[in-house]
Design goal:
Helices cover 27% and strands 22% of the residues. The protein has helices at residues 2-18, 66-75, 85-101, and strands at 48-50, 57-59, 63-64, 82-83, 116-123, 142-150, 153-160. The strands form 2 sheets. Strands 3, 4, 5, 6 and 7 form a 5-stranded mixed β-sheet that branches.
Length: 161
């Protein structure tokens, strides 16, 4: 029982720290980078580390950016995108290529079965929006959207249909 209480407390602290805006130090739940998920033993399932650049806590894994993208679309009066697992799989591979190459542009090769691809990056560690092409296009309906923390910022890849 004591281990469960400790794990819950650690989970609450981890979530609170992860939801802090690195630029202001204030809670910023809309743009937190991951949803805290607990395994059966009540431990956080994603590795969170202190960022050497901003001092905040971030996951170093590729995570979904769809909630952030849909919040941005909602603010702009555009319908939300539906999650498409096949598009997210392609977006993850393309983001890995982008990070490995060190480039911020479109990686070479196909993004099929997607119809469009948006790539982008922002400086800082708590973006307020997804800076990628087609983000506010009302004609796209489904997407796989991912992001990852890199030195001095966040990179995005979104594959649309």
């Amino acid at each position: 029982m004591r281990n469960q209480k400790s794990a819950l407390l650690l989970a609450a602290i981890t979530f609170s720290l992860a939801a802090m805006n690195c630029n202001t130090g204030k809670a910023d739940y809309e743009t937190s980078f991951f949803t805290l998920e607990l395994d059966p033993l009540l431990r956080p399932s994603r590795q969170v580390e202190r960022c050497e650049h901003c001092g905040g806590f971030h996951t170093r894994e590729i995570t979904s950016a769809l909630a952030l993208l849909n919040a941005q679309r909602k603010r702009g009066g555009v319908a939300p995108l539906k999650h498409a697992a096949d598009l997210e799989k392609v977006a993850r591979k393309r983001l890995e290529m982008m990070v490995e190459s060190g480039n911020n542009g479109h990686p070479p090769g196909s993004f099929a079965p997607g119809k469009y691809e948006g790539v982008g990056w922002v400086t800082g560690h708590t973006p307020k929006k997804v800076s990628a092409c087609y983000s506010m296009d009302p004609n796209v309906r489904e997407a796989g959207a991912v992001m990852v923390h890199v030195k001095h910022g966040v990179k995005f890849v979104v594959v649309y249909r």
